[in-house]
Design goal:
heterodimer; A: mainly beta; 5-stranded antiparallel sheet; 1 helix; 9 strands; B: alpha/beta
Chain lengths: ~170, ~475
């Protein structure tokens, strides 16, 4: 064994493309975990795991856009973008809405946790100023169209993923 | 309904004009393992210095550079942060100042905007603007994972991890609200991939038919395979100068006006707004649209249009004195990442009114040779082959398309697309049926650089300076 040998250093796989060497560089596993915070949006994600759809709405009477009677933001935000004041939370007035637009996802990128094919839907709910992107239960067995009515469903308790996937929709 | 404040739509005013004097590019490939990224950038830089008939020698020109603006969309493809620094060093511009710019798919345009501002402000008399992307060092579906992180991490990315899927719902809504004929969408793919056949830089040139496009596999419904651009590797560059220096370096400098607009990352967060009108539009033109939107629970821009593009066009048209785009512009380069984003943009930039986007294609005015009238098209689009036919090495794209408009205005299409030696440089043969796509005597062109679902858009007007 040569004096220069360091334990743990081993040859990395290479491919050849013409005269060029292509080196394989695997990414690291659990050591590469990101510790990502939901910050002040935590009530939203917690709410989903409890079967509740919460949003935030501006109540500042001096807000030039809402005048204090803002509609709900879903996805929520802690601060109003129009007047910068904090926005309190409340539950949606209804969990029934309609499909504003959609796409059928045939195949997703690496790491997709939703089973393909499925419909990715954008849902309009009364009282909410934004349009909510999510997934539709039931695969693609029933073809859908813009205007179809849907109701919110939740992955709660032991089924919860603690992500936005805990909200989904079903046709009604 | 959100209305713009008076200050929001102030038209930018530069302290001095900005000129383009030279451009360079690599060819574009799905995989380019023969060269490292900085080696590709050097190819573009050398072409810029050596091939543009400048009145000074390449190393003299390089000795005039004061500043560089560099664009790259996604660091994680290469795992190389501060790639600007590596490239700047490799092409020998240390220790001059540089800046890195990233705005998704609009990176090229935003980098040009940053470079232009350095000239307009007097910070620099000579600025290099260069963009690049290398997307081939990961598997395609992992590349999709990376690109999907340009969607909202908490509320969108997890849903498909495939960028076409964030885009496709816009296509679906636009198609249904405006009654888009899928054959019109397909015609855009046929046109742009066909024009790419004249380009030695092109990655996917091809002679296709509308039927062939419509028979292809669905990538993300309703978008089919040939309606979507591919991942790409390569680099493009341009040199910007002050007026005095520009005329010392070339007899054919091109004046540049460029502005940007933005909108929310999440399409669903775009609240209803009043449409800012372009010089060729009136309130009366859109009375029907506001009525229609009441009926369909619609909103502007909603999922159908791009406020970012409308704002950028509004600003640059006022800066450059464009009154009626389809009449005043001789050509346009649009961001045809998908056929339908192209179609949507025609209304945003006023080539047609909103609601009439398809007429730009069906009237034939988007073609070099209008098949309907038999005369030259009023304002051909994507003679470069666009993203569908030629390239989308994201950081380079906006810059490449401006280079193509630049060369058209200089009357140099054939020089930069027809020389056998240029085809050979990239290991290709010029096709026997090669066709020149030079427009007759063009004076002004528009180039659009666009990010994803419209988070950022730049619009540039290029105008002959002689």
């Amino acid at each position: 064994m040569s004096d220069n040998t360091q334990p743990g250093m081993k040859p990395q796989k290479i491919d050849q493309a013409g005269d060029a060497w292509i080196l394989h560089m695997p990414r690291f596993g659990a050591e590469g975990t990101h510790f990502h915070t939901y910050g002040l949006l935590t009530p939203y994600f917690k709410g989903l795991t409890e079967g509740k759809l919460l949003g935030t709405a501006c109540v500042n009477p001096k807000c030039p856009i809402t005048k204090g009677k803002g509609e709900l933001w879903i996805p929520p935000r802690a601060d109003c973008p129009d007047c910068h004041q904090p926005m309190p939370w409340h539950e949606v007035p209804t969990t029934q809405g309609y499909i504003y637009t959609f796409t059928m996802v045939e195949r997703g990128g690496t790491g997709l946790e939703v089973t393909c094919p499925y419909y990715q839907v954008d849902v309009k709910l009364d009282g909410v100023c934004t349009i909510i992107k999510s997934w539709l239960a039931g695969g693609i067995t029933t073809p859908i169209k813009i205007g179809d009515k849907v109701r919110a469903r939740f992955r709660t308790g032991a089924d919860a993923t603690n992500t936005n996937l805990d909200l989904y929709w079903e046709l009604i | 309904m959100i209305e713009f404040g008076q200050g929001n739509l102030r038209v930018p005013k530069w302290t001095r004009p900005v000129y383009m004097v030279a451009a360079g590019t690599t060819d574009f490939r799905k995989r380019y393992p023969e060269k490292k990224l900085e080696e590709l950038c050097m190819m573009a830089f050398r072409m810029l210095l050596e091939d543009n008939h400048l009145k000074r020698d390449p190393l003299e020109v390089k000795g005039l550079v004061n500043f560089a603006a560099y664009g790259e969309f996604a660091d994680h493809f290469q795992d190389q942060l501060l790639c600007e620094s590596k490239v700047h060093d490799y092409i020998g511009l240390d220790p001059l100042p540089n800046i890195g710019v990233k705005t998704g798919g609009a990176t090229g345009g935003s980098t040009m905007l940053a470079g232009a501002q350095s000239i307009a402000s007097g910070y620099s008399d000579c600025t290099l603007v260069m963009g690049w992307e290398r997307m081939d060092e990961v598997k395609t579906w992992t590349g999709n994972y990376y690109i999907a992180s340009a969607a909202c991490k908490d509320f969108e990315t997890r849903l498909a991890r495939n960028y076409a899927s964030y885009y496709a719902p816009m296509a679906r809504r636009f198609q249904e609200m405006y009654g888009v004929d899928e054959r019109v969408r397909a015609a855009i793919a046929v046109k742009n991939r066909g024009y790419a056949c004249s380009s030695p830089y092109a990655q996917q040139p091809g002679r296709h038919t509308v039927d062939e496009v419509l028979a292809g596999d669905i990538v993300s419904d309703p978008l089919r395979f040939l309606e979507c651009c591919a991942m790409s590797v390569g680099s493009s560059a341009m040199l910007l100068c002050s007026e005095e220096l520009a005329y010392q370096l070339t007899d054919n400098p091109v004046r540049l006006y460029i502005c940007g607009g933005t909108h929310t990352l999440r399409t669903g967060d775009r609240r209803p707004m009043r449409i800012p009108l372009l010089p060729n539009e009136t309130e009366a033109d859109y009375a029907w649209l506001y009525e229609e939107m009441k009926r369909t629970d619609g909103r502007w821009p909603g999922f159908e249009s791009f406020a970012a593009a409308r704002v950028a066009a509004y600003m640059v048209y006022h800066m450059a004195g464009i009154h009626n785009p389809i009449e005043d512009l001789d050509l346009v380069e649009t961001h045809d990442a998908f056929t339908i984003s192209d179609l949507q943009t025609y209304g945003d930039v006023g080539l047609t009114l909103y609601g009439k986007e398809q007429s730009y294609v069906t009237s034939g005015e988007c073609y070099l040779d209008n098949p309907v009238t038999g005369k030259p098209g009023k304002c051909p689009a994507n003679l470069s082959g666009g993203l569908l036919g030629t390239m989308h090495a994201v950081g380079a794209t906006g810059i490449f398309q401006m280079a193509e408009v630049f060369w058209q205005l200089q009357g140099k299409y054939d020089y930069f697309h027809g020389r056998d030696e240029l085809w050979a440089r990239y290991g290709k043969h010029k096709p026997a049926e090669w066709k020149s796509l030079q427009i007759d005597n063009p004076r002004r062109g528009l180039a659009i650089s666009h990010a994803g679902v419209g988070s950022h858009v730049t619009c540039a007007v290029l105008e002959r300076g002689w």
